[in-house]
Amino acid sequence: MGHAIVQAARRLLNWRSLRWKIAALVAMASCAVALAVGILVHRSTLERSMSLGEGRAYVAMGEAENDYRRTGDASAGYSGEIPPALLQQVRSTGRFSTWYDGRQPESLWMWGAEPIDGQVLAVQIDMGTEMRSLRALDRHIVMASLAVLAVVVPLAALAAELPNRRLRRVARTARRIADGDLNARTRVGGRGGDEITEISAAVDSMADSLQDRLLSEQRFTADVAHELRTPLMGLVTSAELLPEGEATELVRDRVRVLRALIEDLLEISRLDAGAERADRASVPLDQVVEESVRRTGLQVRLAVNGDPVADTDPRRLDRIVANLVANAHRHGRSPVEVTVNGTTIVVRDHGPGFPDELLATGPQRFRTGAAERGRGHGLGLTIAAGQAQVIGAELTFGNAPDGGAIATLHLRDGVGSES
């Protein structure tokens, strides 16, 4: 339960997930719209305020001109010095002009000026109220935009959860198929015609195709092995009747190799068909492994730590150990070492190591990987992996840092895996 909560929290906080990318895209679009609307509203309001200020300045200028005609005082409509820019504009145009003075934020004015009788008559209109209203409007636009983002972004993340959930289901199904469960299906094809439905249908179609091909391959392997078994028995009998000699011994050796290959193919076909069942018993691992190594007739360094006991199928365990040892001698280099530590059995050689393809995808029949690992049919490790699955063990492959291939068998006490 705790692990599931941690995984869910990691998915939720993963900023690379599609959920947050969609939310970020919505946030960016919302910000762009809010910025555009804010700029338009700001400029429109500013232009309106400036227009109103100019209108008020024009009216005030008319009143100031009447006062000037009556009193002769040209400085009655303003306090302070007329801005030089406004003076230059009035003198260059010779008619009424306005100028907004925003040099001091605490004192904002709209100036109006007009030349009369060789003098410049000017008026001042306070624009502080309008500019403060404009700043307040800007603040309200920003606050409203942030409030909308606070609502829209979580809603976008929640809306993205449904396609995210469907994509995670497709990903889980693909991983199950990659792990060998060809019965896994997404089964979400009827939820609409979007891209996720297309991906789901493609994954299901791929699984169907892979399953059909695998079943066809398994049937072919089983049929070939069974068809070859009858003529092979004839070859075995005939080889035994040949007169002794070097040629006869060579024929018998090739017949033995062919018989072993056919027996391996039959064993693989049974493993593929799920016909194998573990016959469990509590066995001393040191004795079982030692006997398995002895029967191979190959030179092996055996090391056992303690008196390990495991609940497993001794016959299948013997088959796994024998195949791993034979593979180490065939494709690696001496010394070959077998170590029993608790319920873990490690088989190591000092050759070129397992090829990268085998480490990535596991053992494949009729594929030995790198050429420097020697020739073979690729069945030994395939059988070992299949038998390990039957007894509920985990067989992993790796390479030692200083060179050599390492096959590690982890036995699981009391846990069986029936295929």
From TrEMBL:
<dbReference type="InterPro" id="IPR003661">
    <property type="entry name" value="HisK_dim/P_dom"/>
</dbReference>
<keyword id="KW-0418">Kinase</keyword>
<keyword id="KW-0902">Two-component regulatory system</keyword>
<keyword id="KW-1133">Transmembrane helix</keyword>
<feature type="transmembrane region" description="Helical">
    <location>
        <begin position="20"/>
        <end position="41"/>
    </location>
</feature>
<keyword id="KW-0808">Transferase</keyword>
<dbReference type="InterPro" id="IPR003660">
    <property type="entry name" value="HAMP_dom"/>
</dbReference>
<keyword id="KW-0812">Transmembrane</keyword>
<dbReference type="InterPro" id="IPR036890">
    <property type="entry name" value="HATPase_C_sf"/>
</dbReference>
<dbReference type="Pfam" id="PF00672">
    <property type="entry name" value="HAMP"/>
</dbReference>
<feature type="domain" description="Histidine kinase">
    <location>
        <begin position="223"/>
        <end position="415"/>
    </location>
</feature>
<dbReference type="Pfam" id="PF00512">
    <property type="entry name" value="HisKA"/>
</dbReference>
<dbReference type="InterPro" id="IPR005467">
    <property type="entry name" value="His_kinase_dom"/>
</dbReference>
<keyword id="KW-0597">Phosphoprotein</keyword>
<keyword id="KW-0472">Membrane</keyword>
<dbReference type="InterPro" id="IPR050428">
    <property type="entry name" value="TCS_sensor_his_kinase"/>
</dbReference>
<protein>
    <recommendedName>
        <fullName>histidine kinase</fullName>
        <ecNumber>2.7.13.3</ecNumber>
    </recommendedName>
</protein>
<feature type="domain" description="HAMP">
    <location>
        <begin position="165"/>
        <end position="215"/>
    </location>
</feature>
<dbReference type="InterPro" id="IPR003594">
    <property type="entry name" value="HATPase_dom"/>
</dbReference>
<dbReference type="Pfam" id="PF02518">
    <property type="entry name" value="HATPase_c"/>
</dbReference>
<feature type="transmembrane region" description="Helical">
    <location>
        <begin position="141"/>
        <end position="160"/>
    </location>
</feature>
<dbReference type="GO" id="GO:0005886">
    <property type="term" value="C:plasma membrane"/>
</dbReference>
<dbReference type="GO" id="GO:0000155">
    <property type="term" value="F:phosphorelay sensor kinase activity"/>
</dbReference>
<dbReference type="InterPro" id="IPR036097">
    <property type="entry name" value="HisK_dim/P_sf"/>
</dbReference>
